[in-house]
Amino acid sequence: MRVLLTGGAGFIGRHVLAELLQRGDDVVVFDSLRDDVHHGATPDLGVPLLVGDVRDPIAVRGALLHDGGFDAVCHLAAKVGLGVNVADLPDYADSNDRGTAVLLAEMAQTDIVRLTLASSMVVYGEGLGLCGEHGAVTPAPRRESDLKIGRFEPPCPYCGQDLAPALVDEQARLDPRNAYAASKLAQEHLASAWARSTGGVVAAMRYHNVYGPGMPKDTPYAGVAAIFLSRLRNGQAPLVFEDGGQRRDFIHVRDVAAATVAALHGHREGVRAFNVGSGKVRTVGKMARALAEAVDGPMPEITGSYRLGDVRHITADSSRLQVELGVTTAMSFKEGMSELAQQFS
Predict the structure, then answer these.
(1) Three-class SS of residue 32?
(2) CA-to-CA distance for 186 and 183, rounded, in angstroms?
(3) What three-state secondary structure class fits 3?
(4) What pLDDT sits at residue 345?
(5) CA distances for 179 relative to 20, 95, 99, 190, angstroms
(6) Residues in CB range of 332: below 8 A, 6 or more apart
(7) Where is 64: in which H helix or E strand?
(8) Alpha carbon 259 to its chain's center
(9) Strands 128-131 and 135-137: what pairing?
(10) Global pTM value
(11) Can you tell me the distance from the alpha carbon of 293 to that of 341, in angstroms, rounded to the nearest whole number?
(12) Pairing relationship of beta strands 72-75 and 164-166 according to DSSP bridges
């Protein structure tokens, strides 16, 4: 299969590229090499690299038609990160949503009908909670007045009681709660509109907390593991927000790449979302402790600090990925943390 891989020079993109090549696919990478990620360097990827911005119709058109065109597009190009401030909205909307819209509009002028899209678990917001009185509910937004006094659990929207977290599947209500999350959901909606108009096939991969080799070291957009390890590398204790009890699903980047390529090859009809997680729930505090132990560094400090746009718990049921595409995760949490710590040592 001939594949155009957008964002293929990035952290996840390089691992997806390696997986595609292992499968025997013919790959061309299209990447803007944005300065805040690549710092002016041009990587040697071992495949053709077309430098351009997905917001530029001329550049995108040229990429899609490169050397006779492609059978499929794997779209990873995006501005990633926290996106918790209202001021972040224009940049995320421009980079992610406009960029995706331009790509899809140009794809509609070609014979390409297969798209795999990098989405995110952040589209669920707080996901699903269990109330002792009202059962499974969508958690109400957390109030800053509660966060200030250390009440971190999201409340039941009906009675205000704290909720127990639960796994969410792909049918759960979508409730993005920051700029990045809103942009990822918009990308999914744009891809769905493209598919309806063109008869295209879309696999939207809702990645969980991705970590592994090649993760950027010193950027706030790298994810919580990189932030913790950056401090540990400098002999400082990781600073854990809230009480460290935030539940997440940490998944190794090679498992993410394998799932993405499996969807590119295996999903063949309509629009389908896939949760991409390890299936193992862990807390942010536990990750911080595991990393500190792996590098024999100082134990984490629980700060009680918070970001209003953050979600408390988000862990999803990834069984659809296994049942429909035969994907299972290979990397254990302990092995993955040890490997990551070695990279940052």
Answers:
(1) coil
(2) 5
(3) strand
(4) 61
(5) 31, 12, 15, 16
(6) none
(7) helix 57-64
(8) 13
(9) antiparallel
(10) 0.91
(11) 9
(12) unpaired
- Token code pair at residue 3: 């594949």
Distance CA 241, CA 163 (A): 19
Q: Which two tokens stand for residue 89?
A: 């909205």
**pLDDT for 159-171, tens place per residue?**
999 898 899 999 9
CA-to-CA distance for 112 and 258, rounded, in angstroms?
Answer: 22
- How open is the CA angle 176-180-181, to the nearest 5 degrees? 20
Lowest mean pLDDT among 104-113, 186-195, 219-228: 219-228
Mean pLDDT of 54-68: 98
DSSP annotation string for 114-130 = EEEEEEEGGGGTT-EEE
| Interaxial angle between packed helices 99-107 and 179-198, expressed in degrees from 0 to 180 and rounded to the nearest 10 | 10
- Parallel, antiparallel or unpaired: strands 247-248 and 301-302: unpaired
Query: Whose structure tokens read 């909670």?
Result: 129
Give the C-alpha separation, 7 to 30, whole Å.
6
Q: Phi/psi at 209 (nearest 5 deg)? A: -80, 105
